[in-house]
Amino acid sequence: MKKDTDQRSEQPQDSLPAPGKFLTFLLENEKYGLAIESVKEIIRMQKTRPVPHFPDYLKGVISLRGHILALMDLRTRFSLPDAEYTDRTCIIVVSAKDKEIGLIVDTVADVTEFSSENLEPPPSITRSETSQYVRAMGKADDEVIIVLDLVQILAEDDLNLV
Q1: Which residues span the domain enclosing 154?
Q2: Measured distance CA(88)–CA(159) in Å, rounded
Q3: pLDDT tens digits, residue range 65-83?
C-alpha cells in the first residue's frame, strides 16, 4: 500500500482545480491563489486571543460578528519567516468542509481568472513539506501563481480543533 505523503506528485491532471476566478494574495513576495468560491470575505487584521495548546500556525481566535473564528497564519503554516503584522495584513475568511477559518496573509492582491489552458499541475520534482498544499500552477501574463489546495492546508486535525 502506498503512503499518502507521496500522493501529490502522482495525482492525475484531472485533479486540477476547475477554471474560474481565484483570489490572489502575497506571502513573502510570492503570489498564491485560492478558488474564489471558498472565500467568504476579507477583513483587516484584528487583535487575536491565543488559545492554549493550539499548533503554532493557529494563532488564536477572534470574534467576527458574534461568531468565534480561528485564525491560521499561512506564513507559519508554510514554514516562512515570521513578519510583523502591518496595516496591509489581511484575514481571508474561507469555508471548507462546512467550517470557517481565517487565513492570515501579508496582503490581498486581486482576483485572477484562469482558463483550463492556464492551469498546470505542480512540478513533480517538488517534495518539500509545503508542496502538499499546492494544487496547480496558474499562468497569468508573465506571472506564475501558486494555486493552493485548501483541503490540504486545513488538515482534518486542524478542522477538528476549530
Answers
A1: 4-161
A2: 27
A3: 999 999 999 999 999 999 9
